[in-house]
Amino acid sequence: MKHKITFLFALFTFVLSEQTRGQIPLLSKDVVGAVHGELSGEAAKRNLEYITRLHRMRGSMEFNEAIHFVEEKLKEYKLEQIEVIQIPMDGKTFYGTQKSRLAWEAEFAELWELDNSGKAILRIADWQSMPITLAEDSESGEVTAELVDIGAGTS
Asked: Are 59 and 89 spatial neighbours (Cβ–Cβ below 8 Å)?
């Protein structure tokens, strides 16, 4: 079995080298060198980190902030003919078989554990620290309900 794998690997390497030999590169070495000099994994990582910190729910301020950020970066990178396409979020317009959903923006949300007297004892989640904890398209409201411990939830 070992000999078969070695033979197949050698055959694959030979075929690959034969296929690439004599092919015309897509770009000249000068262009490839210039592009390589402009690429930065660190810049790409910083851009991605910035965008992922924004809660990009459709129509929200942070969604629009992310769009503006990307648009400005594209201009900074000297790209031309940048177009931001805006689509209605009216709950009426259809895109294929899907009806558009309304724009949704959260401003504040917290979940607290209260003691029997109603005094807050433990903040479980909050919008400011972790926006993803809020259910998408949830409605404004205030509720107090009994907390039920179900243990591990395996039975």
From this structure: yes
Q: Mean pLDDT score of the chain, rounded to an integer?
A: 81
pTM for this predicted structure? 0.57
* 92 pLDDT tier (thresholds 50, 70, 90): very high
Phi, psi of 113 (to 5 degrees): -90, 130
Beta carbons of 68 and 82 less than 8 angstroms apart: no
Structure-block tokens of residue 45 = 């990582």
Rounded (to 5) percent helix, strand, coil in the chain? 40, 10, 50
Amino acid 134 reads L
CA distances from 109 to 25, 118, 146 (A): 55, 18, 19
Asked if the model's pLDDT at residue 117 lies above 70, the reply is yes
